[in-house]
Amino acid sequence: MKRIKNLNDIFEQVESIIKKFKENNKICIVHHDDSDGCTSCALLYIIIYNLTGNYPDIIPIRGPNDIKKGLISKLKTLNYDYVIFLDVTADPKKLDSLKGFVLDHHIFKDIEEREEMRYFNPCEFEKDDEKVVPTSYMCYKILIDLFPDEKVAWIAGIGITEDHRVDICKEVFEKIKKENPEILKLKKINQENIEKSFFGELGDMVRSGRMIKGSDGAKNAVLAMVECKNRPDKFINGLTQHSSALRNFYEKVKYRTEGVLDEIEKTGEFYKKEKVIFYESPKTQIKSATSFFSDKIRQKYPGWIVCVTNKDKKNAQIKISIRLEQTVRKVDLVSILENIKKKIDSLKGGGHRSAVGAFVNIDDYEDFKKEFLNEVKKLGV
Prior knowledge:
Radius of gyration: 20 Å
């Protein structure tokens, strides 16, 4: 197997696998249910349909490491010719006899690929996490190389924005301005401007699928982008079957989020010296609310580290979503988390420099807060 040394190697080797897909092949895409995963799935879905004339099955999963034995057993039982894992850290040697590839961008350890199940990740050659492109960017580059007439930069832009990688993928947004100037009119392209612009709402629409309807909602988001691939205006206004449902989900999420942003100054804990905010998420039926609320609070307070918590009484744990705008303040959240793990055994989690998710036992939460603030103090930024 040829090792990858750069992004072009990834594109070339992934394309060599994709080009083997045949009309009668049974294909499944397993993807992370966040915006990067959903947009990646939509882009690969378009590629597969263009190549084979058939629609692949799609299976959204909750987290980038959420590859359970039950899922693998299901995939084997359904006897797919190819299974593609997008935006998930799937270890090929644990995927039994499945054939296909994994396209990922998360930090990983000890992964061994097989000839029949390749693993592609830019972290193999790029050690600076802030320079690692998201999966949606890679899928987009592969799609336009195979089908240059497709005008789907707007789909890739949604995933890139959620993963805070606008500044290293600017050419995609310049392409959006040319292909769909009505949805992106900014003169200066950067992460903060994109998030605050009209285009930033598209990412919220995609995320609202899983927040309201879980796995089915994430699947709905993928299909909405596919059916509106040439008409983002239809996607935005809910003028197709799946985009209409997604628009309704988004309105519910938007209403609840506005309430949170109004409440934060009253109920949030603001540590001004460390510039850290702790905020307990209100009870809600919305799924993945902590990560979404933490992103929105980060946008409101770009120089602060935002920690949104949610109490899981059933498992006696507290979920913590931590966010920071790296373009304003350089702090490695992963390093902070790893340092605290050495002191608190119940702490689990990980992510990227600017966005991490974690769980800690309820009894250890106050110790976590204390250690977190101490780690930030040590950095002096």
